[in-house]
């Protein structure tokens, strides 16, 4: 099987997205990484709160998105992931990414 991370692109310091909750509150998020899925024919973005510190556990948000002309998620449209199998795939990519980060950090 091919490396599942060959379409993972780590976020850079410039990629930030503002999310607005149901109450109209805005929160700035940093792009953790984006990736493409051939199985679902979509691009995905994983985000974490900009205010999170390095030593705290964070709630990572995941969305499918329509990339802008540069392939970025920062100005495209975000869509919720509603399919359980699709969520499982996203979680698997995230877990692989986090495992690779742990190896790089040691």
From TrEMBL:
Coiled coil: none annotated. Pfam families: DUF1292. It comes from the Bacteria. HAMAP family: UPF0473. Belongs to the UPF0473 family. This is UPF0473 protein FC75_GL001689.
